[in-house]
Amino acid sequence: MTKLKNAMTVDVEDYFQVSAFENYISRDSWNKLNTRVEANIERILLIFSDHNVSATFFTLGWIAERHPEMVKKIVDAGHELASHGYSHIRVTQQNPSEFREDIVKTKGLLEDIGGVEVQGYRAASYSIDSSNHQWAHEALDAAGHKYSSSIYPIKHDLYGIPDAPRHPYKITNLDLLEIPISTISIYNHRLPCGGGGFFRLFPYMISRKMIEHVNQKEQEPCMFYFHPWEIDIDQPVVKGLNFKSRFRHYLNLKKMNTRLTRLLDDFTWGRVDSVYLDRIA
To answer: Of the CATH numbers 3.40.50.300, 3.90.1640.10, 3.40.50.150, 3.20.20.370, which one belongs to the domain with range 5-280?
Structure first.
């Protein structure tokens, strides 16, 4: 049986920009902090090169402005450049006008730096939800994005549309494709298998079995993601975090590099555009 090609994605943001830290690290202080993202991206590019993997890098405009050469390296290495918005503001914290301004600004900025068309978008913390998906998708389509990967079809305290489709779907009356983060359904309960903190939480063999189920039983690609800070065991420890935020962010960081390497060996991976756009067209 020919192996399905899955989509490998990286959400390009620094450790201090995650939503869980927004009450502990002010945006005004970002410029005063030492960024670690460039060194982590260098490591990721090397890992991908060693495993002959092409991926999609959903990149913050704030990061791209400060590290334009890093963005060019991503593109020059054959990876897809996509938008993660400008400064990791959740869509649920924006009105339609603010959201439109944010996505147009970021798309133009990334295209100017990378010299390539930016087709994809991913909302900060998967914050396209049932309250905003209609106008958010319309704005993305109008801005020229071909696809979004901004919905996690699970029940979660911070994000998710539990009854959203589990596999890619065209938005009604639009050309835009929405590509959810991958899950499996067991006894009408959805379990995440698309990366992030869940990949660090579950034993690797469980994640592997779930991705195999999506590929082999459902004959669908898997949409997987991780962050540069997840391979950075030397990142500063943020003080004063509540237990939930501390647990979610720092859990099993020391195991991430080994797990990622096994994942790249065990499955076939590619860019989002090459995995999904031709398949759905």
So the answer is: 3.20.20.370
